[in-house]
Predict the 3D structure of the following.
Amino acid sequence: MSASRPYHHGDLRSTLLASAERTLREKGAAALSLRELARSAGVSHAAPGRHFKDKQALLDALALNGYARLNEAMESADDATLPLEPRLTSLARAYLTFAIQHPELLELMYSRKHDPASAAQLSDEVDRSLSTFLRLITDAKSQGELINTDLDSIMLLTAASLHGLAALVAAGAYPADEVLTTLDTHVHLLLDGLRPR
Amino acid sequence: MSASRPYHHGDLRSTLLASAERTLREKGAAALSLRELARSAGVSHAAPGRHFKDKQALLDALALNGYARLNEAMESADDATLPLEPRLTSLARAYLTFAIQHPELLELMYSRKHDPASAAQLSDEVDRSLSTFLRLITDAKSQGELINTDLDSIMLLTAASLHGLAALVAAGAYPADEVLTTLDTHVHLLLDGLRPR
DNA sequence: ACCTGAACACCGTTCAAGT
DNA sequence: ACCTGAACACCGTTCAAGT
C-alpha cells in the first residue's frame, strides 16, 4: 500500500470517468453517484466539482467518449473496396458489437437530456457517425448498387434499421448472441426488400 | 376550493400516476420525485409508499400503462382488410404518433431496469405489441405478399426498422414533423429494398 | 490550480403511531 | 385500510478556506 495520499490527485478527471464507466457497466446508470465516485477515488466529495460542473457534465463526457470509440470502431470497420452488401454488413457488425458490449453506455449516448454546453460536441459525434454511413451509401449509389431514391430516405431506413437493432439488443429485447449470427440475413433483407421480386 | 382535505385521499394511486406522467412529459424523468408527487397531491411524503413499494414500482406502472395505450392504438390502427403496404403504413403511423406524443414515456418503456415484480406484466405487453405485427406478417405471407424467408427474420427487420425510427424521433435525432410525412416512403423502401430490381 | 470540510436543500425508505 | 411524522442514510451543489 502506498504512503499518505498526495493532496493533488493528479489525474482525477480520467479516474472519475473510468470509474463511472465501470459502475455504469456493472450496476447501471441509477447507481452512479458523484459522492461514491469521489469516495472510491479517495478524494473529498466536492472534488469532482472541479472537473465537472455538475453530474450531467460527467454523463455527457462519458457519452462523448463513447461516441469517439464507436466512431473509431465504425471507421476502421468500413472497407471501401468491398461491394455494398459485405461492406454494410461489416459496418453494421461494428455498431452492433459496440451495442452488445456497452448497452448502458449506448443508452446514455442516446439519451435526450444533455447540458447545452455538451450539445454541440455530441452533435458533432453523431454527424461523424452519420457521415460514415453517408460515405458508404454515396459510394454504392455512384456504382449503381442502390436505387435512385433520394439519399435522405435511403439513409433514414438504413440508420433506423441498424439503430433499431442496436436498441433492441441494448434493451435486452433481442438476444445479443443471435443478433450477430442473423446479421447477414438482416442486411440482405434490408437491401433486397421483404416483397417477392 | 374544497373544505379541509379528508384523511383518506380516495384515489391516490391514480392521482400519483397521472401527476407523474405530466411531470415526465413536461420536465423529464430526472425531475420525478416521490416527495414532490406527494406534495402536489396534498399528502404526506410517506403516503406513496402505500401504493408503490418503491420508486421503480411507480415507474413500472407508468410504463405498463404506456404499453396498454400503445397496444390499443396499434390494434385499432390495424386494418386486416388492407393490402400489405397500406396496412403496415397505418400500423407504423400509430406507433410513430405515440412516439412523437410521448417520447419520455417511450424511453421509460424501453428502459432496461424494472422491478422483477413488474417484469412479467411488461413482457406480456411487449408480446402483445409483437403479436400485432406478427398477425400482419402472417396474413401477408399467406397471401403471397412477402418473400419466403422465415418469419423471425422478417419480423426482426420490420420491428427494428420501425423501432429505430421511433427511437430516433424520441431521442430528437430525427424531426418529429418529418417522420410522418416520409413514412410512406420508409415503408415502401422496407418492402421493396434498397437495391435496384 | 486543485482540493477539503462544512453547510444547505433536497432525496427514498422505513416504521411506529394515529384515524 | 390508509395515512402521518419523525428518523435515517443517503444525494448534488456551493463556497470559504486550506495547500
Remarks:
- Residues 1-52 of chain A form a domain with the Arc Repressor Mutant, subunit A fold (CATH 1.10.10).
